[in-house]
């Protein structure tokens, strides 16, 4: 009976991912440090990167602190009760909208214990409601709308508040996961990969599959699904808007580059929220537990790392011009076409293999009864959609050009300088190109993420299809990019 009970909580054990406990520690505690490095290293006080970082021989701690805008209170200045209070208010507002706004309901995939969890979807409506309020405030007060000013003035403290919330949530759900019991009526279930027995790793990867909590007046909330699709994604859009306002307040105009990134990323965010039901079949929901990996990724990494380009452009207002806009738009269009066309082909085949659009495609039968495509998009690579996804990431970075700038004192009279509202001047100078370490890291990170995700998919399919998967890989040799990888 004990064995059956254990099986009902999680179907199978998994090996360590992310290099095990050392990797979990490096990601959990290293990424917050990286974001703080971004915050200070690329700033509106001295430059991007800070000038002393380009001259290590003259580097001193005191000089570096002055250049990066280190808080006068030291580490204590990283946070504030005011910023934390408003961040918590933002989360509460999101929860209230989740409860009071209308939405559709659906059941998730069948769990190992036989149950199906119910979900309410209204993330798109919630975001549109919030953005409408911000749009009205901006129309009335322009770039001086208090929300935009507060975000730009308290960026460091808002970042810290979200990091603390992410750590708290990861710890809360980990401790609470030990109350999961076999055959419980709430259909609570442990994640297969989060039961290694190593506290640090299980806390990071997530021990409980779909942790839920019932809040007064709000009702039941699926913590993982809510974090995945709501506060972080909308926060990303709000940060971008705040940086547009900052650019206007700093320089007196708004560039096509920052608008392009904000619009493209905004459409990506709203499209994901509009298609919210599709998240129920993703690996994040069906396979991964909710731990520090997803908590930090959803609430901190996505909004603050993904908005690095608009933050950069708010200080150095590079313009693309018609040809530049056409170029980045073309890259985006190609990536979107590959992503959407490949996914649509797969979905059409799964829904109706006899559909005229896919009836001509070749496939391979597996012992499990599943058919695997071996022609069309899915005959060229096992994940052509990942290639399209990666190509779509480039237009987020390209508008920053050969990034890097130096902030000079008022009256410097530098050639080609952008003059800030306080009289200081911004030029690229010796920093040109070095700022790409900040603005182009996203596309490198995304490539690593997709390669890692491909590896996880491969392991999952190998367990599911066995020998058939090995046979399939001999037919479809390339993983993501035909002829290269």
Task: For this entry, give a set of tags.
10 strands, globular, alpha+beta, 20 helices, 7% strand, 4-stranded antiparallel beta sheet, 485 residues, single chain
Reconstruct the topology from this structure.
Layout: H1 2-9, H2 20-41, E1 47-48, H3 61-68, H4 81-100, E2 104-107, E3 118-121, H5 123-141, H6 146-153, H7 155-176, H8 199-205, E4 212-215, E5 219-222, H9 223-229, H10 231-251, H11 256-274, H12 283-286, H13 292-306, H14 308-313, H15 321-351, E6 363-365, E7 371-373, H16 377-380, H17 384-397, E8 405-408, E9 418-419, E10 425-427, H18 436-439, H19 441-465, H20 467-475
Helix pairs in contact: 2-8, 2-13, 4-7, 5-11, 6-10, 7-13, 9-10, 9-13, 10-11, 10-13, 15-17, 17-19, 19-20
Overview of the structural elements:
- The protein is globular.
- Helix 7 runs antiparallel to helix 13.
- A four-stranded antiparallel beta sheet has the order 1-8-10-9, with no helix packed on it. Strands 2-3 form a two-stranded antiparallel sheet. The protein has a two-stranded antiparallel sheet with strand order 4-5.
- It has 485 residues and is α+β, with helices and mostly antiparallel strands.
- It contains 20 helices and ten strands.
- It has helices spanning 2-9, 20-41, 61-68, 81-100, 123-141, 146-153, 155-176, 199-205, 223-229, 231-251, 256-274, 283-286, 292-306, 308-313, 321-351, 377-380, 384-397, 436-439, 441-465, 467-475, and strands at residues 47-48, 104-107, 118-121, 212-215, 219-222, 363-365, 371-373, 405-408, 418-419, 425-427.
- Helices cover 56% and strands 7% of the residues.
- The chain has a domain at 2-45 and 61-319.
């Amino acid at each position: 009976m004990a064995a059956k009970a254990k099986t009902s909580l999680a179907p199978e054990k998994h090996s360590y991912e992310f290099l095990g406990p050392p990797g979990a520690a490096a990601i959990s505690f290293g990424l917050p440090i990286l974001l703080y490095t971004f915050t200070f290293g690329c700033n509106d006080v001295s430059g991007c990167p800070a000038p002393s970082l380009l001259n290590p021989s003259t580097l001193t701690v005191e000089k570096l602190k002055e250049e990066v805008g280190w808080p006068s209170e030291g580490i204590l200045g990283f946070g504030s009760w005011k910023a934390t209070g408003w961040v918590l208010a933002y989360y509460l507002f999101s929860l209230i909208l989740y409860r009071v706004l209308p939405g559709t309901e659906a059941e998730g995939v069948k769990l190992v214990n036989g149950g199906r969890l119910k979900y309410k979807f209204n993330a798109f409506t919630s975001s549109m409601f919030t953005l409408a309020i911000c749009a009205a405030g901006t129309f009335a007060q322009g770039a001086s709308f208090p929300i935009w000013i507060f975000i730009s003035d308290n960026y460091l403290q808002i970042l810290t508040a979200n990091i603390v919330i992410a750590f708290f949530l990861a710890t809360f759900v980990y401790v609470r996961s030990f109350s999961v019991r076999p055959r419980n009526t709430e259909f609570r279930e442990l994640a297969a990969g989060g039961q290694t027995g190593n506290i640090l790793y299980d806390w990071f990867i997530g021990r409980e599959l779909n942790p839920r909590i019932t809040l007064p007046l709000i009702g039941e909330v699926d913590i993982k699904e809510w974090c995945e699709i709501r506060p972080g994604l909308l926060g990303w859009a709000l940060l971008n808007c705040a940086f547009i306002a900052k650019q206007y307040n700093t320089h007196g105009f708004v560039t096509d580059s920052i608008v392009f990134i904000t619009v493209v990323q905004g459409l990506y965010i709203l499209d994901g929220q509009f298609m919210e039901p599709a998240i129920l079949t993703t690996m994040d929901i069906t396979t991964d537990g909710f731990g520090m990996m997803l908590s930090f990724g959803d609430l901190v990494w996505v909004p603050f790392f993904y908005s690095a380009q608009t933050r950069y452009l708010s200080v150095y207002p590079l313009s693309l011009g018609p040809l530049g806009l056409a170029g980045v738009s073309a890259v985006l269009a190609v990536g979107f076409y590959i992503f959407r066309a490949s996914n649509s082909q797969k979905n059409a085949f799964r829904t109706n293999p006899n559909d005229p659009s896919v009836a001509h495609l070749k496939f391979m039968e597996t012992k499990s009864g599943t058919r695997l495509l071996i022609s069309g998009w899915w005959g060229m690579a096992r994940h052509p959609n990942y290639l399209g996804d990666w190509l779509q990431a480039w237009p987020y970075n390209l508008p920053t050009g050969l990034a890097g700038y130096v902030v000079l004192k008022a009256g410097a009279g530098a050639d080609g300088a952008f003059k800030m509202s306080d009289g200081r001047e911004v030029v690229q100078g010796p920093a040109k190109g070095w700022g790409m370490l900040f603005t182009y890291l996203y596309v490198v990170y995304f490539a690593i993420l997709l390669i890692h995700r491909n590896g996880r998919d491969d392991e999952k399919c190998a367990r599911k299809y066995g020998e058939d998967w090995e046979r399939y890989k001999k037919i479809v040799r390339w993983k993501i990019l035909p002829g290269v990888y």
